[in-house]
Amino acid sequence: MRYISTRGGMPPKTFSEILLSGLSPDGGLAIPEKYPTIEVDQLKVWRDLSYQSLAFEILSHFIDDIPSNDLRDIVNRTYTSESFGNPEITPLKTLAPDLHILGLSNGPTLAFKDIAMQLLGNLFEYTLGKTGAVLNILGATSGDTGSSAEYAMRGKHGIRVFMLSPLGKMSRFQTAQMFSLQDENIFNIAIRGVFDDCQDIVKAVSNDHDFKQKHHIGTVNSINWARIVAQIVYYFKGYFAATSSNNEQVSFAVPSGNFGNICAGHVARTMGLPIKHLILATNENDVLDEFFRSGIYRPRTTTEVQHTSSPSMDISKASNFERFIYDLTGKDAAKVRELWQAVDQGEAFDLSTTPLWKKIKDFGFISGSSSHAARIATIREIYQKYNILVDTHTADGLKVGLEYRESGTPLVCLETALPAKFAESIAEATGHEPDRPAGYENIENLPQRYVVKDMDVAAVKAYISEQTNKSRMVCNPNASSG
Ligand SMILES: *Cc1c(COP(=O)(O)O)cnc(C)c1O
Question: Which atom of ligand 1 is nearest to the CA of 231?
């Protein structure tokens, strides 16, 4: 399988070549030249596979430049019951006939991002190990992504993580989760500023190409193709768990932000998984809901973005959305380039008056949005009716999913985080705080490891240089400074 760019400006590359890179050189996103298709016979065999075997089969369709035995080993090391708290990895909870929640949040940071990020950690380590290269991951986080990346990369050879976060602005639980890591390759940098300041520093460092090259700086952002591939697996797993034959169709409700999770659902459907509807749920930041209702995609300005009680979906534009539009145009890179010329300048595009808008119904998407009041009411209702606690993001998915529920079609709502991470909203809905999973009870009392820096690009650069030089001397006195 070869990968090209949604904007047409990249010669075909292998999986390993696109694994460590961010955006394509032309500003587009990597995408397979052609999606694999899964025949009915194959679905029949896959139905009975364990999560690990299913993941290996699906990954093999997208990764053909890692030897099978190595890939199988990577998958088996990644998807263990120790890491995911359950031998099924993504267990299905049935609330009522044809109403299910797919548990995606039992990984180390209690959110669905672990499913892809844990695989990414092992793929990065493997690929870097082949060439003896090193990677210093630099990122900014307001919570979820940063901790998921740190837990995926901790202890990995050849990889360090420098994660910027706004000092004192994350929840105590999130702060403890990240800062309690004692691994020598994890560097938490608390910035005296807000999240946007952290992001600005990351941008400034990344724009210094000399520094970036000298210090092997990379990122783990949500546009990484390997993350999408890892997420395809649980759509198949969820489908098999919710049905008894491959003649049935299923609809998935997906709490959405950057369009990464539901993009994997779109790929699964394109491959031939019998998905009826992909139900996209946004919170108050409804840029995607607006598109699927009106055909108009209007990225928001940062001041327009609302801070909500489902914060991991607070986005101004959806970075993976370009992949879907590429498929919608029938893989017309010139058209994508034209549309994103507007997007990159913060402008909107309107497909409602174009033939593309008529095609969109073939893709199975429907959408809706939620609000604070609606998600609190949903958490309360699901708790009272089924005695199950869901987090605020999952509640947004359930809220919109239930609006579109059809009799005779199983509805699978994707759980994207555990309620323990959002205790305040759970207390608002139910009158009491949720239990913490075993091992997380006292996390706030663990010793914390982090440094504090001013909102100052030079200071952050100096810190990165100092740490990479120091650990280079300790680990490998002969390594070149590259
Ligand atoms: C990241 C995240 C989302 C949004 O997923 P996308 O792939 O960005 O659409 C939803 N819920 C939670 C808890 C998340 O961490």
Answer: 7
- Specify the residue with its C-alpha closest to ligand 1, atom 1: 312
Q: What b/e string do you get for 386-425 counting C-beta neighbours within 10 Å, with b at 16 or more?
A: eeebbbbbbbbbbbbbbebbeeeebbbbbbbbbbbbbbeb
113 is an active site residue: yes
Strands of the 186-191 sheet, one edge to the other:
217-218, 135-140, 159-166, 186-191, 451-453
Distance in Å, CA 347 to ligand 1 centroid: 24
Residue 270: domain span: 87-110+227-430
Over the stretch 376-424, which tens digit does the pLDDT of each residue have? 999 999 999 999 999 999 999 999 999 999 999 999 999 999 999 899 9
Question: If you take atom 7 of ligand 1, which residue's CA is the nearest one?
Answer: 260
CA 125 to centroid of ligand 1, rounded, Å: 25
Count: domains in the chain: 1
Residues in the chain, total: 482
Atom number of ligand 1 nearest to Cα 261? 7
What is the CB < 6 Å shell around ligand 1? 111, 113, 144, 222, 255-261, 312-313, 393, 416-417
User: Which is catalytic among the residues 34, 44, 93, 113?
Assistant: 113
Establish if 141 belongs to a structural domain: no
Does residue 447 form part of some domain?
no
Alpha helices in 260-304, H assignment, sequence order: 260-271, 287-294
Q: pLDDT per residue over 365-384, tens digit each?
A: 999 999 999 999 999 999 99
Q: Is residue 71 part of a domain?
A: no
Q: Phi first, then psi: give them for residue 190, nearest 5 degrees.
A: -90, 125
Query: Is 176 a member of any domain?
Result: no
DSSP string, 388-409: ----HHHHHHHHHHHHT--TTS
Which CATH number characterizes residue 95's domain? 3.40.50.1100
Atom of ligand 1 nearest to the CA of 315: 8
